[in-house]
Amino acid sequence: MNTQPIVIERIYNAPAERVWLAIASKEGMKKWYLNLDEFKPEVGFEFSFTGGEPGGTQYLHLSKVMEVIPGKKLSYSWRFDGYEGDSLVTWELFAEGDKTRLRLTHAGIHTFPQSNKDFYAPKFTEGWTILLGSMLQKYVETTDREIIVSRLLNAPVELVFEVWTKPEHVAKWYGPDGFTITTSDMNVKKGAEWNFMMHGPDGTDYPNKVQYTEVVKNERLEYIYGSGAENGEGDFNVTVTFEAQGDKTLLTMRSVFATAEERDTVVTDFGAIEGGNQTMNKLEAYLAELK
Predict the structure, then answer these.
(1) pLDDT, tens digit (0-9, with 9 covering 90-100), for 142-158
(2) How far apart are CA 204 and CA 179, in angstroms?
(3) Where is the Activator of Hsp90 ATPase homologue 1/2-like C-terminal domain (predicted)?
(4) pTM for the full model?
(5) Does residue 216 have a pLDDT over 90?
(6) With contact defined as beta carbons under 8 Å apart, do 21 and 28 qualify?
(7) Are strands 205-216 and 220-226 parallel, antiparallel or unpaired?
(8) I need a surface site. Which of 48, 209, 224, 235 has the fewest CB within 10 A?
(9) 154-290: CATH topology
(10) What is residue 224's three-state secondary structure?
């Protein structure tokens, strides 16, 4: 039996303070990892969460904080309710200039029932690799370049997705207060485009172009948003997620800009956050009309 711990290291283009908040605060973890009701980086603090592969068995995870060195190290136990075995997850941070080296160690996986393939070490390695190499990296390296707008909508996910992807619907709600749009073409599939003109309250027209890079029906849209300029100046990446919560939908729109300066400009000069919230208000009102 292999009793060696899983050890994974990554270097992030982000200061250690930011990475620490991502792994050791409830607000930070919610953005890329766990949506906990409460979390405190204090020895003895206990927390739990439910998780597993989509469509597979969902397990209740039980954890307890075992060691904390603020800004440098966090360890907590990790076991599954109703199953034998206990393990220890340790996060260690090492500042390297303006970058951060993170080492994750997960020890004791061999104590879980090896008759259950969900508890095999390669499963954990795969999961941690995705979390650290994609989700955590994306979060800590883009925090100062992103805008996130989210809203829990009183409508099923299928309806919300349809209203976001059909031209006859988006014409009724898309854009901040006082703005309307006219769509010339909309083909919601990977590699296709949505081209439309946004009309400002002062009569100014603004060309908009959306280039879809990923489309998962009722789950996620990813696209490049811009004006259609040949040099792509001002373009930014957008991810819209649709998460079913009973008969409601948690919709989250995450925009990531090329630089922190570009992000700050659209916030201060163009009211991007306020405009995003106004757009969500209009979407919410339109969905209420459809019910």
Answers:
(1) 888 999 899 999 999 99
(2) 10
(3) 13-141, 154-287
(4) 0.64
(5) yes
(6) yes
(7) antiparallel
(8) 48
(9) Alpha-D-Glucose-1,6-Bisphosphate; Chain A, domain 4 (3.30.530)
(10) strand
